[in-house]
Amino acid sequence: MELIIKEDPTELGQAAGKQAADLIRGAISETGTANIILATGTSQFQTLERLIVANIDWNKVVMFHLDEYIGLPITHPASFRKYLKERFLDKVAPLKACYLINGENDAETERRRLSEHILPYHIDVALTGIGENGHLAFNDPPANFDTGDPYLIVTLDEKCRRQQMGEGWFATVEDVPQQAISMSVKQIMKSRHIICSVPDRRKARAVKDSVEQPVNPLYPASILQLHPSCGIYLDRQAASLLASGHQ
């Protein structure tokens, strides 16, 4: 795990997006295709903006979706399908394949469908973030580090749901769905490269726990310490609680 600290969210996103683009091009050069995982949320705004202007043969890219609320229509402002469609898919050339999570389908059927699709693929690059509660995707603490299922049905804890409200996606905590379909920790960790973007002071405690605590399901993103090629991109605010040796 490598920490890359930038001054602000824009600089962070530019650096993370450039690294993602380089890795995607590298995978295409090596094998003729690149298989990627995309995240959503405020942490990914600048990263995706940088990625969509990169010189990439998108028709050689297969994309998987990290997580989505159960029961939320695609017309809702907080829909992650809507987010990826408007902020990424509508702005790049058509992909070779794109597997979005449809949270309006029967959840177990959708979970199995996605799991069957991703199993044959070796993921080259995964874009992720870290939640205020330390979650990785929607794997809230204590996260399941052991399951081999690629996708899970998960229940969101209150801190996670309050974060979604605080970021402006929902008017009240009660409006935030209680469940989601999330890629599992083990599936994320199978990725060849992980680029984790974490801006903002409100993430500082989660960053500190993820980087400095022993690997533990109570700090889900701490598992990234074990990944052989994971870059965690922070701004100064997100890095503000780290011990001096990590800054």
Largest sheet: 7 strands, parallel
- Class per helix and strand makeup: alpha/beta
- Overall tally of domains: 1
Detail the poorly predicted runs.
none
The total count of strands amounts to 10
How does this structure look, described?
With 247 residues, the protein is α/β, with parallel strands linked by helices. The protein has a single domain, classed as Rossmann fold (3-Layer(aba) Sandwich). Helices cover 30% and strands 19% of the residues. The chain has seven helices and ten strands. The protein has helices spanning 9-31, 45-52, 80-87, 107-118, 158-166, 185-189, 204-212; strands at 2-6, 34-38, 61-65, 67-69, 97-99, 125-128, 151-155, 179-183, 193-198, 230-235. The chain has a seven-stranded parallel sheet with strand order 1-10-9-6-2-3-5, sandwiched between helices. The protein has a three-stranded antiparallel sheet with strand order 4-8-7. α2 (45-52) links the parallel β2 (34-38) and β3. α1 (9-31) crosses α2. The longest helix has 23 residues, at 9-31. The chain is globular and about 45 Å long. It starts with a strand and ends in a 12-residue tail after the last strand.
